[in-house]
Write a structure and sequence with these properties.
It is built from seven helices and no strands. It has 167 residues and is mainly α. InterPro entries: RNA_pol_sigma-70-like, RNA_pol_sigma-70_dom, RNA_pol_sigma70_r2, RNA_pol_sigma70_r4_t2, RNA_pol_sigma_r2, RNA_pol_sigma_r3/r4-like, WH-like_DNA-bd_sf.
């Protein structure tokens, strides 16, 4: 940055810093935020050389900074509110580790079901995973409801032995 630009910014800072600080303090009520915003005004004009700066332009930059800050705060508040709504509905965020563990559990269950006789595995899948009625399953395969219950008992005993309380 040319020396005259640096001296111009320093001169403007000496002249307008107190007014900008007062402007920001009235609006943000936090001295450190007001300092940061005031510094940002001068940072923005320091990148542009060869221009004449007046108070109107500096305060327009200040107003734009406040508008941007307010917009960011509103977006953050909306995001936090949406997270609160999700938590209130007892919806858990997707966790990659939980997704991977779930896939592993499903793969282990599928492998265990493959060890059962095909009819037993199919009946178990229809009843426990598809929530199909025992009578409908029996009618579909042409077997009695009591036979469907026996297949379910065999499958549950096998899977309980394999996975224990994880079911």
């Amino acid at each position: 940055m040319p020396a005259e630009t640096v001296s111009d910014v320093v001169h403007l800072s000496r002249e307008y810093r107190p007014a900008l600080m007062a402007y920001f303090l009235r609006r943000v009520h936090d001295r450190s935020d007001a300092e940061d915003l005031t510094q940002e005004v001068f940072a923005r004009i320091s990148g542009r050389s060869g221009q004449q700066w007046n108070s109107g332009y500096l305060f327009q930059i200040a107003a734009n900074l406040l508008r941007d800050r307010q917009r960011r705060n509103r977006i953050r508040a909306d995001y936090r509110a949406s997270l609160g709504e999700i938590e209130a509905q007892n919806v858990e965020m997707l966790d990659p580790y939980r997704v991977a563990a779930g896939r592993d559990s499903i793969a282990a269950m599928r492998a265990a079901l493959d060890e059962l006789p095909e009819l037993t595995a199919t009946i178990f899948t229809l009843y426990r995973l598809e929530h199909m009625n025992k009578q409908v399953i029996g009618d579909t395969f042409g077997i009695a409801v009591r036979t469907v219950e026996k297949h379910l008992t065999v499958a549950m005993a096998f899977l309980t032995g394999r996975f224990g309380d994880e079911l």
